[in-house]
Amino acid sequence: MAEVSQASVHLRHRIPPDFYSLNSQKPFDSPHVSSFLGSEDVQNSLPVIDLNSPTVEDSLVRACELSGMFVVTNHGIPLGVLVGAEVEALRFFSLPREEKMKALRTPGETAGYGMAPLAAILDETMWHEGLTITGSPIEHAKQVWPHEYMRFCEMMEDYQKRMKSLSEKILGLVLKNYGGLPPFHESGPSTALQLNSYPACQCLNEMIGLAPHTDTSYITIVHQNDVTGLQLFHEQHGWISVAPKTGSLVVNVGDMLHIVSNARFPSALHRAAVSRVQHRLSFAYFYGPPADFEVSPIINACSSGPHQEARFRPVTKREFVRMKAKNVHALSLIRKGK
């Protein structure tokens, strides 16, 4: 019986809600969730950085220090690529539930359709479905479109290629005073593209799309459609909405960069809200170290005050991911002098 129970738990955390059935039910309040309205008067307060600016390096570093999240423009990715990705993602998420389930993520795997991995960690119901892509999506795409999968695959592979180059450009500038990009050698970085879908939610008066969390990556680059939902936690203002801006991209600092910077750059705490009437899509591209690459604070001439001594012990990404799967506050577990 224990094995059946455990299997049911894992399945529940992999399978997204039946949005159509739930939306047909009478609305009710969720007693466990507070209001998810972001502060409107500060929603445009994130730094906006022109990547063609002669002062781009300093601007990126200041933005990482300020809040760990910022907006970039003139990033070199054509609007047509961003819109094309939206079209293909919507084509997938508009499929009947039973068709999407053909691409369901298998236990122990990263790629595939399902709930966000956060669901298993937080044991929380979230109004979300996603498709995780690592490299080519052809295996899962062929399962849902046996004869019409190439357009989706080509679009997502091109999107990932462009995002990888952009990630390395941004990270290289941010880490210029830390020795530049980490030496991954033959293994290369660990990357993933997460397609996120948040259908209009009419069944709950209060429902979260993605619960508050930080990313494990060095950085994450996010493209949103025109529906507001991304929110950043700000120490002074609380949760602030990050409004979509056509053609721009949102970048946030992840746990790995927080460690490398010796806590100089905060890991951005963020969440996703849902809309009662609009279907929101977002695309999160994660750029991080390979699983066995050891990450540790880099102390240099730019370090000052509390950043002069290492605040974290060295840790591989694999070890950190395992720790975070059991405790979302994994950073506290590797902090020195805790």
Kindly describe this structure:
- This protein is of the alpha+beta class and 338 residues long.
- The protein has helices spanning 2-14, 19-23, 56-66, 79-93, 97-100, 118-122, 138-144, 150-174, 255-260, 317-326, 330-334; strands at 48-50, 69-73, 112-114, 129-133, 190-198, 208-213, 219-224, 230-234, 238-241, 249-253, 270-273, 280-288, 294-295, 315-316.
- The chain contains eleven helices and 14 strands.
The residue-averaged pLDDT reads 87
Which regions have little confidence, pLDDT < 50, spanning 5+ residues? 1-9, 28-35
Q: Could you tell me the strand content as a percent range?
A: 15-25%
CATH architectural grouping: Sandwich
Please tally the helical runs, counting DSSP H or I stretches of 4 or more residues: 11
CATH topology term: Jelly Rolls
Strand order of the largest sheet: 1-2-10-7-12-5-4-3
* Overall form: globular
**Classification by helices and strands:** alpha+beta
CATH superfamily: B-lactam Antibiotic, Isopenicillin N Synthase, Chain
**CATH C-level:** Mainly Beta
Order of helices and strands: HHEHEHHEHEHHEEEEEEHEEEEHH
In helices, the fraction of residues equals 25-40%
Give the tally of β-strands: 14
Rg is 20 Å
The N- to C-terminal Cα distance equals 40 Å
Quaternary state of the chains: single chain
- Number of structural units classed as domains: 1
